[in-house]
Amino acid sequence: DNFAREDNMAASAGRGRGGGTVTSFQKKARAKTIQIPGTKPSSQGNQLLVSTGIPSLDHIIGGGVVVGTVLLVEEDSFGNYARLLMKYFLAEGIMARHPLMLSSAEVHPKQIVRDLPAPVSDDIGKAAVHYEDMPSGENVPTEAPMKIAWRYQNLPTEQPELGAFSQFGHYYDLSKTMSSEMTDAAPTRLFHLPDELPLEDQGVWSSITNPAYVKLLQSIQDVVKEGQFDLTVPQPKDVSRTVLRIGLHSLGSPLWGEVGTSSDSSLPRFLHALRAVLRTSLAACLITIPTHLFQDTAFTRRLEKLCDSVIRLESFAGSEKEQNPAYRDYHGLLYIRQLSHANSLVSYMPDCIDFAFKLRRKKFAVEKLHLPPELQDSQQREQDDPVAAMKTPSASCFSPNVKTNLDF
Length: 408
What we know:
Elements: H1 2-13, E1 39-41, E2 48-50, H2 55-60, E3 65-66, E4 70-74, H3 80-95, E5 100-104, H4 109-114, E6 117-120, H5 123-130, E7 171-177, H6 180-185, E8 188-192, H7 211-226, E9 244-248, H8 266-279, E10 283-289, H9 297-305, E11 309-315, E12 332-338, E13 355-359, E14 364-368, H10 379-384, H11 386-390
Parallel strand pairs: 4-10, 4-11, 5-8, 5-9, 9-10
Antiparallel strand pairs: 1-2, 2-3, 6-7, 11-12, 12-13, 13-14
Helix pairs in contact: 7-8
């Protein structure tokens, strides 16, 4: 009887007012992400991403730059391509209506903003940018159709560009510059090092001995607090959130007073303090550093570890690879040093690690490096072959025209 009474009480307690069964299990709802224009959630760790302005580069680094992280671009020898990446990053911020902060010690930030590429607004313009290098139909000679196996007939004739079908970000035309109305309307904070002279000791970060880095770090922190990008400070619900884009052009150059050795740790400590500020802020930072000027390799590796994502650009201009026929379709190589693993144990891994970039008349694109299967036999190829170089007349005991077992 006692067991029957307990079963009746449990059954009556499990029924709701409407006669339905009440359970303690609840359906798990998805975590609400902040909806900010110009951002998208990451598939890796549900982090917010902002576009670099180059769809192919976004595809390589995992969809874009994670908000709250630092993307380091190691400059090429002349710094032209790294500056172009900075322009893409800032132009995408203007199109997404993100506030900008730009610092430079060489070129005035106003000049960099003035030279931003113009956006391509319609699909016709996008098609013109993508297929600008394709020959016109009038100049292409008509040939008889080639018969191929039926299984390959429906395959595309050429591999599409990385990120060609991405709807994230915008496309830009390098042959045109952005209108002054668009650049003037964007909220921009400029930091030109010569205009900040004389530099005074701020006294906030005593570990950073370089006053230029202290002044820059103080300016970044002021912009984060004034623009309400700090996530530690509660904001009203009716305030629309946005992302701050920070661009530090050619940081660590001799104009910043950088030595580039392990004896001076001002730059590593600056990057460490910058990441601490970004981790609790709605901000994304892109930094270009001329690491080719540093003689200490350990110092460069230390800078890379203090950033979240690192890529290095190698230009063919003025090098032996410029005359190499294997690289005739490219202008340089892109190396991935490391990728961000924020909110996840493992970082994003691209399906390929060999990338090259090319600069066309209207766009900058990153592609997978495809070398020709076999080069033609030439005198240069014979000289490069160490085995062929050993085959000299003096290496054989017999006549050089007679092949014997001693010839290898």
